[in-house]
């Protein structure tokens, strides 16, 4: 099955480079290009891409606002957003995840990393595996913004989880794959997948990235400070 990709970046040169890279893959195709967030939202509704590569800084409606509009639209539940960022704007990482992004990727990443990110997001997984990325997310979630009124609600929702689902959620927040969690908890990967899916349904999470945010915001997991 071909992965449909929408490119959203205000720099035409970057969009062209991404298009050449994506279209060179036999299992991917670019279905649209947007130069700002508002256009990205419109094209997402028209073209129904599997993955949106979203620049975070664009004129008018920025990437964060566009991501939030896409993630809150029930008709676009199968559209996964990957935020493109740079090391200079790392403070946007947690905002990206809270807005509903499936993950984020540095613009300086290797082509293979970008292609892998698209496939991971299209599969419904989160781009949270690299150690540096996990540490970055934990650091910003620890700082918080102090005005997110969703945290108490999410903490209350944790009461709906079984003990095993809580254990699995803690492991997911640590960035572990289903296979790794299965080994740690001495269960099958299929069992882990079932617990993850049930936790997502009970907590209203779109994907694993949102599970990680909920785990930190609710206080179930406390980030380590190195």
Automatic annotation (TrEMBL):
Q: Name one GO biological process term.
A: regulation of DNA-templated transcription
Residues annotated as domain Response regulatory: 4-122
Question: What Pfam families does its record include?
Answer: GerE (PF00196), Response_reg (PF00072)
Q: Which InterPro entries match?
A: CheY-like_superfamily, NreC/VraR/RcsB-like_REC, Sig_transdc_resp-reg_C-effctor, Sig_transdc_resp-reg_receiver, Tscrpt_reg_LuxR_C, WalR-like
Question: Which sequence positions carry the modification called 4-aspartylphosphate?
Answer: 55
GO molecular function list = DNA binding
Which keywords does UniProt give here? Answer: DNA-binding, Phosphoprotein, Transcription, Transcription regulation
Task: State whether keyword Magnesium applies.
Answer: no
Q: Which residues form the HTH luxR-type domain?
A: 154-219
PANTHER family xrefs: TRANSCRIPTIONAL REGULATORY PROTEIN NARL-RELATED (PTHR43214:SF24), TWO-COMPONENT RESPONSE REGULATOR (PTHR43214)
Query: What name does the UniProt record give this protein?
Result: DNA-binding response regulator
Q: Which organism is it from?
A: Streptomyces griseofuscus
């Amino acid at each position: 099955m071909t992965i449909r990709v929408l490119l959203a970046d205000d720099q035409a040169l970057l969009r062209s480079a991404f298009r050449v890279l994506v279209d060179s893959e036999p299992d991917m195709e670019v279905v649209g290009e947007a130069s700002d967030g508002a256009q990205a939202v419109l094209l997402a509704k028209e073209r129904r891409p599997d993955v949106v590569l979203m620049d975070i800084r664009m004129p008018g409606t920025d990437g964060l606002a566009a991501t939030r509009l896409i993630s809150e639209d029930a008709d676009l539940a199968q559209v996964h957003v990957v935020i493109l960022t740079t090391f200079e704007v790392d403070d946007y990482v947690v905002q990206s995840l809270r807005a509903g992004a499936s993950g984020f990727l540095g613009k300086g990443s290797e082509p293979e990393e970008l292609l892998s990110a698209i496939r991971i997001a299209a599969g419904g997984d989160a781009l949270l595996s690299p150690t540096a990325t996990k540490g970055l997310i934990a650091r910003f979630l620890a700082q918080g913004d102090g005005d997110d009124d969703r945290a108490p609600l999410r903490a209350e929702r944790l009461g709906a989880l079984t003990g095993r689902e809580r254990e699995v959620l803690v492991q997911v927040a640590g960035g572990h794959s289903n296979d790794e969690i299965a080994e740690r908890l001495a269960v099958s990967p299929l069992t882990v997948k079932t617990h993850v899916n049930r936790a997502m349904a009970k907590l209203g999470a779109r994907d694993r990235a949102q599970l990680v945010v909920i785990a930190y915001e609710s206080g179930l997991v406390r980030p380590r400070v190195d």
